[in-house]
Amino acid sequence: KDYQDALNRMNTAFLSKFMSDGFPLLPPTREKVEWMLSGTSLPPDELIGCYADLFRPVTVMNIAINAVMAGARPEYMPVIIGAFKAINRSQAQHPMFGSTSAYAPMTVVNGPIAKELSINCGVGLMGPGWQANACIGRAISLVFTNGVGQIPGTEGPSIQAIPNRDSWCFAENEAMSPWQPLHVDRGF
Questions:
Q1: What is the pLDDT of residues 64-121, one digit of tens each?
Q2: Are 49 and 88 a contacting pair, CB within 8 Å?
Q3: What are phi and psi of 50, to 5 degrees?
Q4: Cβ atoms 37, 154 nearer than 8 A
Q5: What pTM was estimated for this model as a whole?
Q6: Would you tell me how many other CB atoms lie within 10 Å of the CB of residue 14?
Q7: Nearest-angstrom CA–CA distance, 178 and 140
Q8: Integer Cα distance of 119 and 131 in angstroms
């Protein structure tokens, strides 16, 4: 009956269960999750990654739910899903799954989609004011918390952590870079 009261109670409950990054979350209602899923042609139950370090599967549905809570838009889904596929593909022990140092997932977006989504690659690219940068990075962080199980203080053992663990996403500025593009370095 009272949306604001329900929203406050949801956020309090998520905070108490360490299922939040500390910022207010948006409710992952059925309608909003379906709206988020419209950003991908993949089925909701498709497995995107299973992180051997914590033995937890991440599905398209899990990504969509956390993307809604992060304030993302459906058109961000290919980037968020792509980030998890890339992390999973590496098959390496990920330091952010078992280190006391300050690790955070960083997403560098390359290609036409960066411009389409207005992902900042210029001045202030790691700062506030860019919805795509903030929401994509935050969605990835929330999936690590709620999907993979990187709960601060337990399975996310960073002693000090770093603020950008909440959101670290930006585009590569190929035109201004003195180096060859990252995708070329990676063999694409």
A1: 999 999 999 999 999 999 998 888 776 555 555 555 555 667 888 988 999 999 998 8
A2: yes
A3: -130, 115
A4: no
A5: 0.83
A6: 19
A7: 29
A8: 8
42 class by beta-carbon count within 10 Å (0-12 exposed, 13-18 middle, 19+ buried): middle
CA neighbor of 79 nearest in space, from 46, 112, 52, 51: 112
Give the separation between CA 29 and CA 166, rounded to whole angstroms: 22
DSSP helix/strand/coil, 58: strand
Tens-digit pLDDT profile for residues 59-69: 999 999 999 99
**C-alpha angle 66-36-64 in degrees, rounded to nearest 5:** 30
Residue 44 gets the label, from left (phi > 0), alpha (psi -120 to 50) or beta, of alpha
pLDDT at residue 152 greater than cutoff 70: no
Residue 93, number of CB atoms within 10 A of its CB:
10
Q: Enter the tokens of residue 7.
A: 């929203």
Structure tokens, 167: 């959101």
Give the Cα separation of 170 and 53 in Å (integer): 26
User: φ and ψ at 110, to 5 degrees?
Assistant: -130, 150
CB atoms near residue 18 (< 10 Å): 17
d(C-alpha 21, C-alpha 167), whole Å = 10
Q: How far apart are CA 175 and CA 66, in angstroms?
A: 33
